[in-house]
Amino acid sequence: MAKSKGKVTDLVKEIAAPFLDENGLELYNVEFLKEGKDWFLRVFIDKSEDAEEEYVSTDDCEKVSRYLSAELDRIDPIEQNYYLEVSSPGMDRALLKDSDFTRYAGRLVDLRLYRAADGRKDYQGILKGLEDGQIVIEDETGKECRFDRTQVAKTSLAVVF
């Protein structure tokens, strides 16, 4: 019998938090998913806001992977076989938590709506923040756009080369 996805992700958050904190990292997200016949435990880590470096290194991922693997083997809370993957959320990371909208204010974001507003679903602009449940951006014309969070399918950092 599979352990519930919520219990697994909550347990991983609990196990990982002190170790991540000690290493200048924070938990970005945890997913426990079945894809085909295989289960995957995906742990996404990020640098703490006050860290000197902005991006997660492969060494960071490897260190967290070794720690979580050892801890999960020790307490053995997951009944089924699974693959553990530890990575960064990437340069085009989705903004998930309220604090992400504060942390990345002033950055260029891509925003996708569930349903079109003013004839379009996709917007790009400078993130102003989250105000009263609305995501606020300034579009390329300088116009302030507000979208109720329930209308927004995804907000992610834009990658510009």
Describe the overall structure.
This protein has a five-stranded antiparallel sheet with strand order 7-6-5-4-8. It has helices at residues 5-22, 58-75, 98-103, and strands spanning 25-35, 38-47, 83-87, 108-117, 120-131, 134-139, 144-148, 152-157. Helix 1 (5-22) packs across helix 2. By secondary structure, it is of the alpha+beta class.
Helix/strand order: HEEHEHEEEEE
- What strand order characterises the main sheet? 7-6-5-4-8
Helix content: 25-40%
Poorly predicted runs are none
Beta strand count: 8
Structural shape: globular
Instruction: Give average pLDDT, whole number.
Output: 91
β-sheet strand percentage: 35-45%
* Total DSSP helices: 3
Largest sheet: 5 strands, antiparallel
Q: Label the structural class.
A: alpha+beta
Q: Write down the Rg.
A: 18 Å
Spell out the key features of this protein.
globular, five-stranded antiparallel sheet, 3 helices, 8 strands, 161 residues, alpha+beta, three-stranded mixed sheet
Briefly summarize what is shown.
The protein is of the alpha+beta class.
Secondary-structure topology with pairs:
Blueprint: H1 5-22, E1 25-35, E2 38-47, H2 58-75, E3 83-87, H3 98-103, E4 108-117, E5 120-131, E6 134-139, E7 144-148, E8 152-157
Parallel strand pairs: 2-3
Antiparallel strand pairs: 1-2, 4-5, 4-8, 5-6, 6-7
Helix pairs in contact: 1-2
